[in-house]
Amino acid sequence: MSNTQEWHYTDSSGQQQGPISADALQQLAINGSITTETQVWTEGMDEWAPASQVEGLISEQAPAPDTHAHEPQINLSPQASGINLGPSIQAKPMGQSLTTQYSQPKKSPAKWIVSAVILALAIAGGIYLANSGGDDEPKTTLGLETYTKANERLSACKTGSAFGNSSHAGTIGKQFLATINPPKAKAESDAAAATMKEASNNDKKSSEANASDDAEKKPSAPEKIELALHCQTSEVDGEKAVALLIKIPNLHNLDPAAKQALLDRLWASARLSLANTPYGNDQTKLLVALRGLTSYDCLMSGVPAMTQAPEKQPREGLAKTWKGKDAELKLPPFFIEKQ
Fold this sequence. Notes:
- It is a single chain.
- By secondary structure, this protein is α+β, with helices and mostly antiparallel strands.
- It has two domains: 6-81, Dna Ligase, domain 1 (2-Layer Sandwich); 144-197 and 220-335, no CATH class.
- The chain has ten helices and ten strands.
- A six-stranded mixed sheet has the order 5-6-7-8-9-10, with helices on both faces. A four-stranded antiparallel sheet has the order 2-1-3-4.
- Helix 5 packs across helix 9.
- Residues 60-64, 83-107, 133-140 and 211-219 have low confidence and may be disordered.
- Residues 7-57 form the GYF domain.
- It comes from Oceaniferula marina.
- The chain crosses the membrane at residues 112-130.
């Protein structure tokens, strides 16, 4: 041991003490404050070691128990180690160890950096997966799956058919078909068609002369409407809703005036269809969606109010109308199924 060395040691409670001179350390060994098991450290040592392994530290004491008789002695004097300690020595800080309370050699900072990067990537990946759905199935729009299935079925069915998701929906669908095309209207339509055919035959030459002009004109709304229908009834948190998806294949043939007349007729028929059902009150949300063969053209939303005859007030209860692409975006929430 060299008098120029500064030492650190642990007391009986395991707390780190020092720095102290080599003489002071040896004095503690003489008075018994430092025993052969006491952990000591000085600059140049890789780890803390028992005092029994430091040459000259406990030489003046009575022979220590023979527990370390065969352990090699360590001479850490500057002359033996070849280390130039210099005039000032900084104590090696005691860190935390996985196996003992004494510090171990420091780990490379590069390993901590790599571990931190891997952890950050894992957290970022988890957040991304939690916030993003798959490409095939949107997860944020309630009712979208049910709506999609209903719309696919509507696309495949023929005109004159109606279906729904419940017994009430089936009843509403049938009443709607009977209301939109009543028997009287059908008979009058057939008679008008026969009359028009006869007039057309008698005036064939005149019709042929104006054929080019007539080809550019779009027909008015037909008396009999060829359509297919899906009715969806739902009740979520005590709130009732009815959605009617209506497909009219020749919708694109109608001019704006004829289309507006058709919309009025559809809304009035929808209100009449709910009249004798549990959904025929102003607490029910009513939605009527009109589409052609491929896409939706118009969406009407409101309540099935019925204070006046439909022919006098066909738009009673109608609150809002969407047209074009906006129409289809409003549909899925009406297809939230009761859990």
